[in-house]
Amino acid sequence: MAPVTEAVLTISFGEGPYWDDDEKVLYYTNFLESSINKYNPETRENIKTEIDQFPNTYTSFLIPIEGKKHRFVGALKRDIVEIEWKGDKEKAVVVRTIAKVDQNKPENVINDGKADPRGRLFTGTFGFNPSGKNLNEMILPERGSLYRMDANGEIHQLDENITISNGLAWDRNGKTFYYVDSVDGIRKYDYDIETGNISNCQKLFVPKDHGIKGICDGLTIDTDDNLWVAIYEGSLVLKIDGKTGAILQKIAIPNKGVTSLAFGGQNLDILYVTTGNDRQKKIEIEKGAALYEIKGLGVRGFPAFKAKIN
């Protein structure tokens, strides 16, 4: 059994892990604390900072921009922005707003995001009621959408009526796009790598159909084209057959709120898993949440794609 160990304990609601294979560090965000983080497994140092202009805005992902040192694409509420951060304790700065989505839905928030094999940004939204007392009250059904942003900042809506836009992944051949709407499960689409368009949506995996409690959250893929999905409110990471949707492996995580995951490490064979506290309130400090690392899985991930932004 692969050991699950705590790497960082000082998080309240971790999200969006991204392994930078050039720097050999893991970037991730703290969604409810509105911070961005850099974890170096070699030194065990975790550096955390806020975004200077937006100290109290939900921050869901941070992706390095290709060819621009210290520059990242990120999301703040409904804005896709370019961020400058040197990876130290100085506050990060929003350089510019690249694009806006769902401006006619002020309750919406951008959630997970990733760059595709050509560097285009894929991200989506969900309807959010922060005064809700539980997950069902906090999420507004079918208010979100899935978007693609091209290098020139042009936005394309790819799907709609999404409840909780979440994890994203592409297979090794760039022909299949995997996507999580958390209330629905894992979907797969035919993917056109030349255009970035998706089609032919099919359901691949629905947790309740397999007797799994909880909902699908963040998603990644290994070099065998098997999926690894975080099960929020389920204390699990699942390995899923990318073709059939069968469960291949279950890994227990000592936290109910498993949010996302990414392969990293020198050989891309360590699975980093973010979690969140169960209280889901900004005023709550990091009780019950951690960044975990799982070694010895016998699989490897792909290097994460960087965003291409003009």
TrEMBL record:
Residues that coordinate or bind a divalent metal cation: E15, N166, D217
Cofactor comment text: Binds 1 divalent metal cation per subunit.
* Molecular function terms, GO-annotated: calcium ion binding; gluconolactonase activity
Annotated active site residues, numbered on this chain, are: D217 (proton donor/acceptor)
Q: Which Pfam families match?
A: SGL
Highest taxon of the lineage: Eukaryota
Q: Which GO terms describe its biological process?
A: L-ascorbic acid biosynthetic process
**According to its UniProt record, which cofactors does this protein need?**
Zn(2+)
- Quote the record's binding site residues for substrate: N111
Keywords in alphabetical order, please. Answer: Metal-binding, Zinc
Domain (SMP-30/Gluconolactonase/LRE-like region) spans 13-276
Q: PANTHER family from the xrefs?
A: MIP34848P1-RELATED (PTHR10907:SF66), REGUCALCIN (PTHR10907)
UniProt record similarity statement: Belongs to the SMP-30/CGR1 family.
The entry's protein name is: Regucalcin
Q: What is the protein's species of origin?
A: Papilio machaon
